[in-house]
Design goal:
The chain is an all-alpha fold. The protein contains eight helices and no strands. The longest helix is centred in the C-terminal third of the chain and has 49 residues. It is elongated and about 85 Å long.
């Protein structure tokens, strides 16, 4: 799930970065986020644990006990999960300042990803029969994730259509006022030429 999660994080971030003018200054790039995940995994800061647990409490509360179990049994996997959750929490918080609807969808997507990563870890040690059940659970989770991605894309399409309508209206207004706009621009040029130097 690490690859799928990384892919989804980058895809979501691309959609979010493209959704608003100037948004790129507010959101880190997917590469920067991946570097942040790696840094947290290596440095293991305690504040990351608190952020990850707070985020997990919001998006997949039933995974909190499993996170504790992971900490005791597989510290490296635990810190990889903490890092992923911490970075995702930062993304959602940043997005929430601009658009709470999109932030809610992305948070739900990240919650599904946390569930899928847990299933992925369980799959490795499961019996063949249990693997079939886990696979079915993953199909359901990724299907839900796809539906949320689709809703997020629908919001983007609506934004693009709205902006396109605004640009078309402004273009039409300028065409209708062409003579006045040209006259005003020429008047400005002449006024500027007549100013004493």
């Amino acid at each position: 799930m690490v690859c799928r999660t990384r892919h989804v994080l980058m895809a979501c971030t691309g959609m979010l970065l493209g959704s608003r003018p100037g948004a790129a200054q507010e959101m880190p790039s997917p590469q920067a986020m991946q570097l942040q995940v790696q840094r947290i995994t290596q440095e293991r800061p305690r504040e990351a644990e608190a952020a990850a647990r707070a985020f997990l409490h919001l998006v997949a509360q039933d995974r909190l006990m499993a996170l504790d179990t992971l900490k005791a049994s597989a510290p490296d996997q635990y810190w990889a999960e903490v890092a992923q959750l911490t970075v995702q929490f930062d993304v959602v918080q940043s997005l929430n300042r601009r658009d709470s609807v999109r932030a809610s969808l992305v948070a739900r997507m990240f919650g599904l990803e946390a569930q899928a990563r847990a299933r992925q870890r369980a799959y490795r040690a499961a019996t063949e029969a249990a693997q079939a059940e886990i696979r079915a659970q993953l199909v359901g989770l990724i299907g839900q994730h796809f539906d949320l991605e689709d809703r997020l894309r629908g919001l983007e399409v609506a934004d693009i259509e709205r902006r396109l309508a605004e640009v078309r209206a402004e273009t039409q207004r300028r065409r209708e006022q062409r003579a006045d706009l040209v006259r005003w621009a020429v008047d400005d040029i002449i006024r500027d030429a007549m100013r004493p130097r």
